[in-house]
Amino acid sequence: MADIGSQREEICLSLQSVSKHYGQVKAVDCVNLDVTQREFFSLLGPSGSGKTTLLRIIAGLEQPGDGRVIAGAQDVTSLPPYRRRIGMVFQNFLLFPHKTVSENIIFPLRMQRASRTECDEGLKWALDLLRLGGLGDRYPNELSGGQQQRVSLARGLISRPTLLLLDEPLANLDRELRAEMEVEIRRYQRELNIPFVYVTHNQEEALTMSDRIAIMRNGVFEQVGAREEVYTKPETAFVASFIGESNHFDGKAIDTGATDMKIEWHGKTFIAPRQSDISPGDSVRFSVKCEDVDIVAGGRAKNAPEFNQVTGRLRDIIFKGQTANYIVETQDKSEIVASQGPRGVDVKIGDDVVAQWSTSAGMGFKI
Amino acid sequence: MSDVAITRRHAGRIRISPFLVLVAPGVVFIFLFLLLPLVVVIVFSFWRTESYNLYPDWNLGNYHALLTEASYRTFLLRSIVGALIASVICLVYAWPVAYFIARHGGRYRLLLVLVLAAPFFTGVILRVVALQGILGPGGLISITMAELGLPPIQGLMYTQNAATLGHVYLYLPFMVTAIYLSLANFEFALLETAKINGAGPFRAFFEVTWPLNWVGSAVGLVLVFIPCLASSITPQFLGGPNATSFGMRLAAQFNEAGTWALGSAMGVVLFLCSLVVIVLMSLTINPRKSGLTARGLD
């Protein structure tokens, strides 16, 4: 009994078969999810995948066609947004332009009919937390984008909601600021111990900040898991291609062992980790992350059974700073991309090279 | 490039600056149709009329009469109060209409606004007469009441209320258009933000929608108040004996009475009243706080 009780306390948000259909379009299709108290949870997906609709359902801005939303041990499915005690931060900030920074921030407290002293204390706390001191009397149009987003976060957090929803809050900020805010947002989440549900189409953002990530596509979760898990062990071909940069080989499984299998691709044979649902003869898409592929100058490559090797010509090097992408063109004009630190590699464009990766790397999916 | 420009100038071509081209029509209009008549009226108001003739004897007699004769004060006060009531009724009535069009009009928004303004395609007199046909003794309402065997409604016609109703009917489209134009630029997503942050629909309206669209309300109030204040035809047709307005008396000075000087003085008084209203209203608009400027800086 006690166990169930404590577990209930743990789970802060629970979605139970939540669906939202617009005519034929299934924006959200029977989604189940539990988010716990200490979690930073990201919904990651391409645009049109239904992640924003799902967030709006949690907020109460959309009614689900089916299913239940439970926030803080209370069924809020039929509650309007202003009764849910859920905070939300928007991509375009949506500060009230006719109110000062202070008035914007204490708005939620005023709506809860908090006393004057509560408002003052809350305001001081929020201004300190988000380092907005001295800006209280400004109007939103007198602030920079980063400051506006901070105000928006302060407004979302001041009433200590049971849950904070963030809808692509960093999409309108420049790269440098975004990196800074990623760290900050994660810090607020840890300090305040409020679960955050973060919607983004930017996988770097999701990977940097989240504890768990749900990859969403066409209204359903393709995979839900810890960030490392989603990155290293994609469960579907879509996740494999969406997260990180990968090479894809469409081939055929020709032999399956206990832990590995052989895949035939363009007359070559690869060895790859075995997926339990694949049997010989199946069409298979094999994905391997670009950073798992090494580039070796043609003459120096040694035949090694623990590597899959493909020979080709180095067609281009795309320098990215910390890493570079080496684009290898095979004899049949296919491309393989290897991502490596540029210093260790001694090859030039036009050289004969070998692209190789460990037989334990990558993942095959039935197609 | 610059060489070409110089030779042209040397060739003696007259170049009219585009700035002047843009400014001139407005300046000419304001001068001819606003400043000039205003100056004329102000000048006349200090003159004297006798037997339908104007004499340039500078005096304050007209203003003295307006200030001392109780009937003028009554007319003016009646006009101001009547215009105020009509403006406020228009405001309350127009908000839901404009809100509906802006929020749910979709691609028919402009069409809906045009339909509301359609009565303007006919003349004022026609519209007032149409109203008589509805409210009057042999009108739609009386006949319906009689058919249903109900007693007639007292004071439906030829009262101050009927005049006010006429004003609301005539000028409501101004108010709707003004509020609609403001709402058309309003970021409705701010309402969602307000709701997420704990504001019910009612509070969200008064915390966000109302203040951010005050410009529309204020412009609408001015646009309705001023013609109602000066109105003469509507109270004349609908108002009856106890609704004589300042505007009616003013019109009479230029018609039957032929006292142009006094009429001009009354015009100046009306103008000053309108000016006060415009100044008061513009003081309530804080461009810094209004949504219009904030949106521009997004």
Describe this structure in words.
- The complex is a heterodimer of chains A (367) and B (298).
- Chain A has 367 residues and is an alpha+beta fold.
- Chain A folds into two domains: 2-237, Rossmann fold (3-Layer(aba) Sandwich), CATH 3.40.50; 245-366, RNA polymerase II/Efflux pump adaptor protein, barrel-sandwich hybrid domain (OB fold (Dihydrolipoamide Acetyltransferase, E2P), Beta Barrel), CATH 2.40.50.
- Chain A has nine helices and 20 strands.
- In chain A, the strands form four sheets. A six-stranded mixed β-sheet of chain A has the order 6-7-8-3-9-10, sandwiched between helices. Chain A has a five-stranded antiparallel β-sheet with strand order 13-12-11-14-20. In chain A, strands 15-19-16-17-18 form a five-stranded antiparallel β-sheet, with no helix packed on it.
- Chain B is mostly helical.
- Chain B folds into two domains: 1-45, no CATH class; 65-296, Orthogonal Bundle (MetI-like fold).
- Chain B has helices at residues 2-10, 18-45, 61-68, 70-104, 109-117, 124-135, 140-147, 160-184, 189-196, 201-212, 214-230, 233-239, 246-254, 260-284, 291-296; strands spanning 48-50, 53-55.
- Chain B has a two-stranded antiparallel ribbon with strand order 1-2.
- In chain B, β1 and β2 (53-55) form a beta hairpin.
- Chain B is globular.
- Classes of the chains: A alpha+beta (367), B mainly alpha (298).
- At the A-B interface, β6 and α3 of A face α9, α10 and α15 of B.
